[in-house]
Amino acid sequence: MRITILWLLLTLPVLADQPQIPLPALFKVHGVSSDDRLNVRTAPDTSSEILGSYDTLTEGLEVVGFSAKGNWAQVNVAGQTGWMSMAYLKQQPIALDDNGLPMGLRCFGTEPFWTLTPRPGTLVLARQLDEVIEIFQINSTSPAQYLQDFHGMMIDVTGDNGTHTIRVLPGRCSDGMSEHIYALHAISDVFGAGCCSIENMK
């Protein structure tokens, strides 16, 4: 019992430092001079290796995690997961499409490879292995639209093989092909399970 209480006391300050921002979240580069770029690093410190960089006009960066102190944001770049300083990032609202889903939403999986992409009133499922494209008519979504602090979203659809439910849920997810980490995943009897991204880069 004492060990448990001690562990809680030791971890409380760390937890308190983390930003109370539901993930995934979208950010834009902010406060960087026009002739400079914001670096993405291998670790949340300024001395770590640079993986890439973004210019001052970059918007729609998907953040999937935060450092323990909350001063670095975890992002995906070039097949790896890197870190950007929160001092030069500003949160953006998540724009929704006509389906009530994030504009940049895309879900995907492996074994076999597939992608799920919203289109007006529909979801398009493309299977790479047999080059089959299935179009599902969206009947309803619950909640009616994506909320940044939501706890899950159910999308009822109808396709050639009947009615199905696709669940888009928060929670860290790996695509199994890269070091990328995502903050959403999708589950359905149509395609099994996979990861989702809402990144909408401009």
What does this molecule look like?
By secondary structure, this protein is mainly beta. It has two domains: 2-92, SH3 Domains (SH3 type barrels), CATH 2.30.30.40; 106-197, no CATH class. The chain is 8% helix and 48% strand. The chain has one helix at 2-17; strands at 25-29, 38-41, 50-54, 61-63, 65-66, 72-77, 80-85, 89-92, 106-109, 114-119, 122-127, 132-142, 153-159, 162-174, 181-188, 192-197. A hairpin with a 6-residue loop joins strand 14 (162-174) and strand 15. The longest helix is centred in the N-terminal third of the chain and has 16 residues, at 2-17. It is elongated and about 55 Å long. Mean pLDDT is 90; it is low at 1-16.
Concise structural overview:
8% of the residues lie in helices and 48% in strands. It has 202 residues and is mainly beta.
Count of beta strands:
16
Structural category is mainly beta
Indicate the overall shape: elongated
What is the succession of H and E elements?
A: HEEEEEEEEEEEEEEEE
User: What characterizes the major β-sheet?
Assistant: 8 strands, antiparallel, barrel
Output the number of helix runs: 1
Radius of gyration: 19 Å
Report helical residue fraction: under 10%
| Strands ordered across the widest β-sheet | 9-10-11-12-13-14-15-16
Rounded average pLDDT: 90
Integer count of domains: 2
Which segments are poorly predicted (pLDDT under 50) over 5 or more consecutive residues? 1-16
β-strand percent reads: over 45%
Distance between the termini: 51 Å
